[in-house]
Automatic annotation (TrEMBL):
This protein's UniProt keywords: Plasmid
Annotated spans, Disordered: 66-128
Lineage of the organism: Bacteria, Pseudomonadati, Pseudomonadota, Gammaproteobacteria, Pseudomonadales
Name of the protein: Uncharacterized protein
Biased composition (Basic and acidic residues): 117-127
Biased segments, Polar residues type: 66-93, 107-116
Length: 274
């Protein structure tokens, strides 16, 4: 096993050359560390020879950085002589509609003017609402106290027609194992999964359940003294929810693709928990 710590740029570049990749400059190294934690980069450097996912991770990271670094600069004279493009501050109505949240029983819940999947600062606000007659759910990208990417599932009871009491919501943060089981359930490898024993103190016993009912999924979130928020979830909603879960899992395992995660969840957790 490669035991090099890759503490110096010289060690990193020597390894990149061994892997058939280009060397990087100090400025490029600084940009790469902004895009990926050093521990992940070091792990990928060590495993790239025998791990396709790790190699693909380096290929995505290194060439993209170099391409931006080596892009030709435009001279001031050329910039002044270049034709100015008019900015359209009033986009057509059709383009505006394409950026609006979907109507009906499903909609993406972003902050004001916040497209799905985008970040504001260091916080990822990707989320998705699922509405039911008696309750509603929100699936959101989140982080644990240790900074590990995960999912927060929140449920609120209906207090009127399409009105929900989010001030009394039940919130559950997925553990690492629950993320894998959720993917296995939502992609058909498991018939159901349950996350138990969340919460502390008087909230001990919070949890959630996802059940594959064939034509749709049934999801419920529960907590002591708060009852149950139960909502049917369509395959279309499940598609978006699964994509958000996979996005979070890939942040912690960037050398794996979404397809890799689905396959591993099916062949390990799905196969042995049935």
């Amino acid at each position: 096993m490669n035991a090099v710590k890759y503490d110096t740029l010289s060690d990193v570049n020597e390894r990149l050359v061994e892997l058939g990749l280009n060397k990087i400059s100090p400025a490029q190294a600084a940009e790469i560390q902004k895009a990926a934690p050093k521990a992940r980069l070091v792990q990928a450097l060590r495993e790239a020879s025998s791990n396709t996912g790790a190699m693909n991770f380096l290929r995505r990271l290194i060439p993209a950085n170099q391409g931006a670094q080596n892009a030709p600069r435009q001279s001031p004279a050329a910039s002044q002589n270049a034709p100015q493009r008019r900015q359209n501050h009033n986009p057509p109505a059709q383009a505006q509609r394409e950026h609006q949240p979907p109507a009906g029983n499903r909609q993406h819940a972003q902050g004001p003017s916040q497209p799905q999947g985008e970040k504001r600062g260091d916080k990822d606000y990707t989320s998705h609402h699922v509405y039911g007659g008696k309750a509603a759910l929100t699936w959101s990208a989140d982080e644990t106290r240790n900074g590990e990417p995960t999912i927060r599932l929140e449920g609120a009871k209906a207090v009127g027609e399409r009105q929900y009491d989010w001030s009394s919501k039940i919130a559950v943060q997925f553990t690492r194992d629950e993320l894998t089981c959720a993917v296995a359930t939502l992609t058909g490898a498991l018939p159901k999964m349950e996350g138990k024993n969340h919460g502390v103190g008087d909230q001990t016993g919070k949890g959630f359940e996802i059940v594959d009912q064939g034509k749709n999924f049934f999801v419920k979130v529960f907590a002591p003294n708060a009852g149950v928020c139960a909502v049917p979830m369509t395959p279309e909603d499940a598609f978006t929810v699964t994509s958000i879960i996979l996005k979070q899992m890939r942040k912690g395992k960037p050398w794996l693709s979404g397809q890799d995660l689905i396959m591993l969840a099916a062949r390990t957790v799905g196969r042995m928990k049935k």
